[in-house]
Design a protein that fits this description.
CATH architecture of one domain: Orthogonal Bundle
Radius of gyration: 29 Å
Strand content: under 5%
Strand order of the largest sheet: 1-2
CATH topology of one domain: Cytochrome Bc1 Complex, Chain D, domain 2
Shape: elongated
Number of strands: 2
CATH superfamily of one domain: Cytochrome c-like domain
Distance between the termini: 105 Å
CATH class of one domain: Mainly Alpha
Length: 188
Amino acid sequence: MRAFLLFLLLCVAPACRQDMHDQPKVEPFEASDFFADGRSARPQVEGTIARGELSLDEHLAAGRVDGELATTFPFEVTAEVMERGRGRYAIFCAPCHGSVGHGDGMIVQRGLRAPTSFHSERLRESPPGYFFDVITNGFGAMFDYADRITPRDRWAIVSFVRALQLSQNAELADAAPEARRVLEEEGS
């Protein structure tokens, strides 16, 4: 029996060490002999910017120019940008706004409140910066997507929304001459 107790004591004794528990690190509000004032918590160095938080381009990062909502896009809208916008729209926007922006997405079909149609007069006349701002900060029942969608992707979505607005509110006179001829032939 004594041998068993001695064996048990030898097995348990090493577990009493606190080396892994008490690692050499600075804990909040712990005194430190490294700094002359004895504090471990240090104030931020003036001018410090958190990683990923520096935005030198207000137009791109905030959707504003001189504090006003941007009326232009911060970069050229290409076919690749539109395609990226279409994909991001399908993921983040279509569940509520629907595939063409009428506010009839799957969430609405399940009973939640419908968002305003992108084809309303007010939204057709809103500048691109307005849509960017709503995606970034949310509006009404819509929560913000700033932490889910990068600024470039938000602008891509805005470009796609503009394309949806044009596609759903176009008139025959807006079509290119060759497309207009085809449409006129099909209509007759």
